[in-house]
Amino acid sequence: MEKEKKSQLIPSFQVDHTLIKPGIYESRLDTLGDQFATTFDIRMKYPNTEPAIHPNAMHTIEHIVATFLRNDDEWKDRIIYWGPMGCLTGSYLIVKGHPKPEEIYPLMLRAFEHLAGYEGPVPGATPENCGNYILHDLAMAKYEAAQFAERLKSDPSFAYPTSERITTEKGMTFFDS
């Protein structure tokens, strides 16, 4: 009989979520050959304190911000992924290279100000383009975007409230994943 392996707690569950505030954090740095891919935690809400973002609003945030990022003249060729966190307190942004959170700040501020003022149909919200096209709430997405943009302008946060950074044997650094 094979012994059951005990699962190790993954790095994203080792970050103290009681201390995280809304902001832009480097979550993870991966190396792909001689290239880097940086994952950013775009934290819109205080975890476990504020209500999470409603799934309909988060879906709309995903569609509009992803469209904005992939059309941004400066960043479009570096965007790998934009998508919501399962806890619905923010999103992950994965980019080529190793920019710092402060370098991502202007892009995120532009994206969320764009969403806060967005008018028109939600991009890709049709049965042909989306797996759950009726799960959208533009008004609430705009409200959440405006709130987050104001937080970024008034009190930007760029460093996780922890001194521990986990480095794997392959040299990858994790702050959250």
Describe the protein's topology.
Blueprint: E1 23-32, E2 35-43, H1 55-69, E3 79-84, E4 90-96, H2 101-116, H3 138-154, E5 166-167, E6 173-174
Antiparallel strand pairs: 1-2, 1-6, 2-4, 3-4, 5-6
Distance between the termini: 34 Å
Q: Can you name the CATH architecture?
A: 2-Layer Sandwich
Helix content: 25-40%
* Parts with pLDDT < 50 across at least 5 consecutive residues: none
- What is the residue-averaged pLDDT? 90
In CATH terms, what is the fold-level topology? Gyrase A, domain 2
Strand % is 15-25%
The domain tally reads 1
- What is the number of E strands? 6
Q: Main beta sheet, described?
A: 6 strands, antiparallel
Q: Give the helices and strands as they follow along the chain.
A: EEHEEHHEE
Please tell me about this protein's structure.
With 177 residues, this protein is α+β, with helices and mostly antiparallel strands. The protein has one domain (21-174): 2-Layer Sandwich (Gyrase A, domain 2), CATH 3.30.1360. 27% of the residues lie in helices and 20% in strands. It is built from three helices and six strands, in the order E-E-H-E-E-H-H-E-E. It has helices at 55-69, 101-116, 138-154; strands spanning 23-32, 35-43, 79-84, 90-96, 166-167, 173-174. The protein has a six-stranded antiparallel β-sheet with strand order 3-4-2-1-6-5. Helix 1 packs across helix 2, helix 1 crosses helix 3 (138-154) and helix 2 (101-116) runs antiparallel to helix 3. The mean pLDDT is 90.
